[in-house]
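User: Continuing from earlier, I have the next pair ready.

Assistant: Great, send them over.

User: Here they are, in order.

Assistant: Folding the first of the pair now:
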Amino acid sequence: MWTKRQLVDGIRFRVRTGIPWRDMPQEYGPWGRVYDLFRRWQRNGTWQRIFTALQAQADAKDLITWDINVDSTIVRAHQHAAGTRKRGNVQKSRPAASPPSRPTTTLGARAAA
């Protein structure tokens, strides 16, 4: 039987290291059980409540500085937001009709000169 503490430690290990769930060391329990606990707490808002409570405690002790600075010189639009044409079923526009040009050959170039 795996304790909830071992499963939570497994979640902490996975979040800290970034390993895939299936590579979870056995000391934390089966990866499926660890993942199930993580997802269950994520869906019912447990992680958000834990974060909010810890943030409130840190703020009460003046451990958080709430300074916000936005520098607009580094804000850039993504290349796809620049209005470029999308690929796909979009028909390409054709240039205006013009008479076909005659092929230039070495003989034709000498005759034109």
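And the other member of the pair:
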Amino acid sequence: MATQQRSDGADASSASSVNGRAIAAILISIAALMFVFSNVGPATLRFLFLQFTMPAWGWFLAVLIAGVVIGSLFPWFRPRKK
């Protein structure tokens, strides 16, 4: 099966997979943000002898940001560039 070449040299199948990944990332981000901002009640975090209280969306947003940072620091599942 032959792939179509684009004018910039990349084949059409890689362009569609990148667009598919971008769409999936956008949809997951929207769903995560909807979840975060629908939880507006206060939540308490207890760690050892410390106690913090803030809106639940703040905790969810902090965990989401931490996940993005950790995912960018440890790119184990990204394909290696040749």
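Worth noting for the second one:
The chain has one domain: 12-73. DSSP finds two helices and two strands in the chain.
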